[in-house]
Design goal:
By secondary structure, this protein is mainly alpha-helical. The protein is about 65% helix and about 0% strand. A two-stranded antiparallel ribbon has the order 1-2. Helix 1 runs antiparallel to helix 2, helix 2 crosses helix 5 and helix 7 runs antiparallel to helix 8. The longest helix has 26 residues.
Length: about 270
């Protein structure tokens, strides 16, 4: 509560000032959201677990106070970024304000609701919406340059290091618990293995930074709206492509095998 995009080291709000306890609070919230999804074999559980494990790895990473140049700022970014996902999810499922949900997220949530895509699809639709759609707006809102004028791109790129560490364990766990075919899937001629998925995510994160630069560089509100629209449209096209590539085609294919596997292994 009270979280804003502005980073304020003197704020009384744990997340606004980038306190490590904010990261712990984000993880607690993610666990509370994930657990019922896993237990019910909801198809949203795949991305929810991926995001949870990634944030837990981030928390371990910042035990080294020298890893990032400005750890409190990255802690703040972690909270703001997560809030975009929470807000999209809650607008779709709790408030039924579907019109307020970004198109890329609409595709991801609708696919989960109808059990329409594979586990790989669930994973990639969530990741793509959050990185390709949400991240540029988050980065632009929190700022690309520090108060002393230093570019925050160095810390942005450092994130890729712990993402690389967590990729393979996430693939293994989502495969074991939710869909046995995640680990052998192929998208864009790239297998969903450690190297392929990490390279995809790293490329998306680089594009997100460049899009944030475009948002910040916009000189008028009209210019900024054009940039924002282009980000939304690109993320939507990505979502449509991923959905098409990973969709089930009843009666030839369906989620029945995935759902049966989850019913037995969701708590593994």
């Amino acid at each position: 509560p009270g979280l804003t995009a502005e980073y304020d080291p003197s704020s009384s709000n744990l997340c606004s000032r980038g306190d490590t306890r904010c990261v712990d609070a984000v993880i607690t919230e993610m666990r509370q959201r994930f657990n019922p999804l896993a237990k019910s074999c909801n198809h949203n559980a795949v991305f929810a677990l991926t995001y949870l494990r990634t944030t837990e790895e981030y928390r371990r990473t910042i035990n080294d106070p020298t890893f990032f140049k400005d750890t409190p700022f990255v802690n703040h970014e972690d909270a703001v970024f997560a809030s975009y996902y929470f807000e999209a999810y809650d607008n779709w499922y709790k408030r039924t304000r579907h019109g307020r949900v970004a198109p890329a997220w609409q595709i991801a949530f609708a696919a989960a609701d109808r059990n329409g895509v594979s586990g790989t699809g669930s994973l990639l639709l969530g990741m793509s919406a959050h990185i390709n759609r949400d991240l540029p707006f988050v980065l632009a809102a929190i700022g690309l340059v520090g108060p002393e004028g230093h570019n925050r791109k160095q810390d942005h790129d450092k994130v890729n290091e712990f993402l690389n560490r967590v990729t393979q364990p996430v693939i293994e766990e989502t495969t074991r618990r939710f869909d046995p075919r995640i680990s052998d899937a192929s998208i864009k001629a790239t297998t969903a293995d450690e190297t392929g998925l990490f390279q995809l995510v790293a490329g998306w994160r680089e594009r997100a930074w460049r899009n944030a630069e475009r948002l910040v560089a916009a000189r008028t509100s009209q210019e900024r709206q054009l940039v924002a629209d282009s980000i939304e449209q690109a993320a939507l096209l990505d979502a449509r492509y991923l959905e098409a590539e990973t969709a089930y085609h009843p009666p030839l294919t369906s989620s029945s095998a995935r759902d049966a596997h989850c019913a037995v292994n969701w708590n593994d």
